[in-house]
Amino acid sequence: MWLEKRPQVHIADNISEDSFESFLLAKELEEADEKALSIVRRNRWVIKYFSCGTLWGSTFLALLLLIGVVLSIIRSIWGIEDDPDSIFINWGKPGTETEDLAWYPTDFLRDVMPIPCHSHNDYWRRVPLYSALHAGCTGVEADVWLFDNSSQLFVGHDRAALTPHRTFQSLYVNPIVELISQNNPETPFYNESEALRGVFDTDPEQTLVLLVDMKTDGAKTFPQVQAQLEPLRARNWLTYVEDGVVHKRHVTVIGTGRTPFDLLMQNSTYRDIFFDAPLNELYEDPDAPEMEEVDEGPFVYNSTNSWYASVNFFRTIGSVWTHLSEEQLQLIRGQIRGAHRRGLKVRYWNTPAWPISLRNRIWHTLMAEGADILNVDDLKSATKKRW
């Protein structure tokens, strides 16, 4: 029958007994060849896999590097930098001893290099005074308010920002005393009278400028500022003028805002608060021949009564769209010349803040023309010195 199952015939059934051993040997060789071929194929696949993996890995690393470069360029263009205030992340939190007053480890300024920048509206920083010093600023600014029912000087931009704990003493005077005390320890190996050591370890002779912007009536506020500086005065840490000679010390106090110049000048033999002279009134023709002070008599504002000579950039120099015009440059040069001839340091405030490229260009031009201090709000960008 066609449905009948046929017996299965194997090749080995047709081989004689004498040839069977040869057949087995050939069979083993054939199987060995198959195994070898299989191993070769597997090895090729592994090599191909790892080759592709290496290629993809290299591509991935190159992509990460490219992304890093792009982000770095973006950060540079837009002025985004690592936050130097990150060390103050726990400031003000319960249990840190910073709830109301200032505190910080003694060595946070040990490797900070001071640069000529002034922390404008310093009380806006995450930590007033300390943030500016940690960034390297050699000047800080405090707006102070005095009210009839209090002897305290409160610090803030306006009345709505004032709080009982944020005072001139708690935010500035007391912390400065602590910092300078730490830099001038009483030990058998050191005598403070032998050297001047200010707040910066890397430059102990650098004075710290404390600009006090008096927001309330100057005649009432000025005496209170004088009184609250006593902890610094008693330690001989304030820059002072005596009999017409300037003695530079650890801290230089400058009065601005409603500071009364006539009241500041009352003591003709000694003073330790200097004036912020009006830079716009000191213009001298930058192209005129050099003149001696004796040709015009003594100056009203000079190094014995003033320290800074400042002005509102926008109001005095005007708007800048791409670059300073020749007329604006001449005005700046004339103001700087007049201030320097009186022994004063030039400071422009309210300079353009945006775009970043224009701001940096203005900063660079001002310093190149002879300005002495940058008045800044963006500490991170200013202290990177990319201008």
UniProtKB/TrEMBL annotation:
Keyword Transmembrane: yes
Entry keywords, A to Z: Membrane, Transmembrane, Transmembrane helix
One GO molecular-function entry: phosphoric diester hydrolase activity
A single GO BP: lipid metabolic process
Protein's recorded name: Altered inheritance of mitochondria protein 6
Domain of life of the source: Eukaryota
PANTHER family reported in the protein's UniProt record: ALTERED INHERITANCE OF MITOCHONDRIA PROTEIN 6
TM segment ranges: 49-74
Family: Belongs to the AIM6 family.
